Amino acid sequence: MLVSYKWLKELVDIEVPSKDLAEKMSTTGIEVEGVTSPAAGLSKIVVGEVLSCEDVPETHLHVCQVDVGEEAPRQIVCGAPNVRAGIKVMVALPGARIADNYKIKKGKIRGLESLGMICSLGELGISDSVIPKEFADGIQILPADAVNGDEVFPYLDLDDEVIELSITPNRADALSMRGVAHEVAAIYDKAVQFKEFPLVEAEKKASDVIEVAIESEKVATYQARVIENVTIAPSPQWLQNLLMNAGIRPINNVVDVTNYILLYFGQPMHAFDLDKFDGKKIVARDARDHETLVTLDEVERELVADDIVISVADKAVALGGVMGGAATEIDDQSKNVVLEAALFDGKSIRKTSGRLNLRSESSSRFEKGVNVADITVAIDTAASMIADLAGGQVLADVVSAGAVETSPVPVSASLDYVNRALGTSLVYRDIADIFRRLGMEIAGDEETFTVQVPRRRWDIRIPADLVEEIARIYGYDKLPTTLPKEDGTAGELIASQTLRRQIRTVAEGAGLSEIITYALTTPEKAIEFSLTPTTVTELMWPMTVDRSALRQNMISGMLETVAYNVARKHKDLALYEIGKVFEQTGDPNQDLPQEITKFAFVLTGLVAEKDFQTPAVPVDFFHAKGILEALFAKYSLDVSYVATSDLAALHPGRTAQIELDGQVIGVVGQVHPQLAKDYGIPETYVAEVNVDAIEAALSPVKPFTEISKFPAVSRDIALLVDRETQHQAILDAIASANVKRLTKVSLFDIYTGSNIEAGKKSMAYNLTFQNPSDSLTDEEVAKYMEKISAALGQLGAEIR
């Protein structure tokens, strides 16, 4: 919410520096983001009158003689299409500072001397989105009564100060100037000064021209007024200035009044061209599935049954609470106007604006709430202003349907409850004074009291809300403070915290650096590296499309980090993350997703750089696997790696799923080359492991075992197997022999040369045997080897 300080001072009689007001508001419950002035950084910009304007042949330029209040006019070369003799303009004199601290100097353009610059609003730093349509492609034309040589800032209210409020959902009453005025008046114990807008009605009744009906439970009330014989024209300069400082583009006098009411009352309002209606009955109803409407931004919207539409002759003319329709908008030929003021269901408006990605000032206010007591006052004020600014005739009476309760809401509390909550010793007189400042009636005694809460403060409904109001106005800085009396308790890490710290130690010991990535991603990336993807949990109203779904893997987010670094020439990366993924295994409409802790890492680039005596060593599958083996070895977990090609995001020949006790707990492999190309990264290896599964599999710490005094015996065995036979299959076959004294199996050679028959490979293993209580004999070892050879024979291996 952008608040004009000039306008605020018209509503509340205060004369304090804007920064002091901002600090006071921030300490009483409404945070102020900052205070700015449109004129900040601008200088030496004055009013000038164009005395003559001559075209420069074969160019778009004009040579202007401009009176800036000096003895002689200045010659200025200007390229604006709307410059002409007889208008008042903004002139930046030599030495002036305009937007971006640009300094104006004397110069020549096409050989013509130019002693200054005729400025547009954009050149003064005003956003293109709020510049009036008539001046969007040219210079700003000032009012005819502007005095030559005067600074331009007062004429456009550029010398105003704009206070930006950060409105929390519970204080949506401050989304209006009247709401802010009530707040400031309470802070400084002043009275609000709201201007009266007298309304003169014609004898002709509005009900003779239009009818209103409600056919939706999402519409509480709908009110309409008719103004005939208006003249569409630009708004007066004061109204245009006010809207621009609030971040709204001036359109014309009728539309600008509706936006003024939006800012003043916080009541969204819309104006229809009555002559463009196909009937006289206006119906607020639910939309029909696949019904379409072209909104004011010239976009055709497909509607659903949850939307609210305003229809005439059963044809939608506006998207209720969000945006009007293009077919009935006010234009330069409009003569008869229908004003709309309504109360729509905030949840429905939020769903509609979120689904259509169509946020507006109106939808924002309906979502957070509006003051139902001011709906009729707002539409009457708008009618009065249009009659004044557009010369229209207001037809008698408001045509309405539905009704809302506007009487104050009684809320009671006790003084003991207040003082106990705040630690104060307030008496009834103190509390009565606070609610007097807030503009609320109070009745009670030294024990209990009841406050009549006006409808403009719909956030106050329970005793705790009254306590908050008392604390705000009394002053948080005045509340007594005490130190906690409870003794501290000794803390310790829970098992999962201990495990995460130990995993960090292993990862960082392997040279990995920790990062934190977003838990939100796109629906596609959410399941990109998931072995068993579940229903994706998507946000109903995401901030951006790239952050709209909860992740089911962490690798895709880490690859974005890799891509970011690679694009900046950081190519040797070893990163890890411990975080949550979210899997939806139940009903998405009823059950929350399950949170699972995972450990993931990515490796790319070189492990060791090239120097004068050693070659460069790039990362490969076995570097990634080695980190995992170090982790599993720390906890004595017997995991197996099973080759898989089921995951399209990983290389089909360099990927394995990690299994623990028959359960898949993770995956390790190379990012598929095509996907790596899509991300813009080089050859990259990744892994992801379920930390919760590791924690569940942890066994008690093994007791110390003495090192055997007896020597170990080793034997080598070479096998001829099919090329498709996996290393893990051979290990499983050796284990199936159940040789108790076998303590270690190591693969030390793989050979597929010309001496091996086609389709075969030779794999050589070293087997280590040891008896902790006695020395092994050759006969015992020979028996062990026979059992192992027999088990390998069942696999189809040939002992060489």
UniProtKB/TrEMBL annotation:
It comes from the Bacteria. Binds 2 magnesium ions per tetramer. Its EC number is 6.1.1.20. Its cofactor is Mg(2+). Residues 406-481 form the B5 domain. GO terms for cellular component: phenylalanine-tRNA ligase complex. Keywords: Aminoacyl-tRNA synthetase, ATP-binding, Cytoplasm, Ligase, Magnesium, Metal-binding, Nucleotide-binding, Protein biosynthesis, RNA-binding, tRNA-binding. Belongs to the phenylalanyl-tRNA synthetase beta subunit family. Type 1 subfamily. Tetramer of two alpha and two beta subunits. This is Phenylalanine--tRNA ligase beta subunit.
